[in-house]
Amino acid sequence: MAPSISSLLLLASTLPLGLASPSPSYLPSRASGSAGCGKPLPVVQQPAGGDSHPTNFTQTNGAKRTYLIHIPSNYNPNTPVPVIFSFHGNNKTSEQQEDLSQFSNEEFNKDAIAVYPQGVNKSWEGAPYAVEGVDDVAFVEDMINHFEDQYCVDSTRIWAAGKSNGGGFTGTLACSALSPRIAAFAPVSGAFYIPYPAGTTSCPSATSIPIPCSPPASRLPIPIIEFHGSADTVIHYGGGERNEACLPTIPHWVREWSKRNGYGLTNVTTSLYGGNVTKYEYHGGMVTHYLTEGLKHAWPSTEPNGDNSKGTYFNATPIIMEWFGKHTL
Fold this sequence. Notes:
Helix content: 10-25%
Number of strands: 12
Strand order of the largest sheet: 1-2-4-3-5-6-7-12-11-10
Radius of gyration: 19 Å
Distance between the termini: 41 Å
Structural class: alpha/beta
Order of helices and strands: HEEEHEHEHEEEEHEEEH
């Protein structure tokens, strides 16, 4: 039986929280800009702003892939800008992820290029149902190289977010050899699948299951923010077994990132919205987690979206944007 939500709560003192602003103020860039600075936008993407552009892409290994890209209306080919990757959930599309995550909404993100890649068979590497042999980490690496060559990119401010299976893949990227090229990671309702232990077909305790993760030691510490609902019946907050694989409890997954970063288990706990949302911060927010009571498998939004017809207490996207703005390579 999965642990109760109350037994999973992370304990610490409570401090007041400043709300995220819709338009984040990014840290000053240390980058001089990528090789793409000074190059005009592709003709089909001119002028900047407006609708996003479906794009065919060939990887260095010859694999044919696609992504959706949004160029902010204030894009200047001589000014380095951040790039945000937003990965869809299982059986979803890049267009659905754009609508859900709202990184193309200039009320929330007025400066960064937003990219919504499409998974093969609508899934991402790391999940038990992902297409065998597909190297999505290499896909992201190829896209980063391409964007740095074609657009004026601030290579110190490339960020990754995702929902569900896309959130799990965001975690996979954070643990990968590619993590030194991505400044911060924001999974939402993340599906952090772990294979059965060797020789078994069952899961150990979700509160203590070992979580494989080996980013380069020189990359640590890695900024992580995760959002989850207590009533998520797809990727349970209390973890357990799903799709013939194991899921850790979300608090265990968060704590392991704090430990991996060398911060230990001490955190600041903040109660928000009348106790309906709890924010946990380790080491000044380098590792952050939002737990929303009663929220199901949804990207938090005050307005109805493709996940939730009623909305909830806050918008995750401007919070993510403000938090991203604090983290550069």
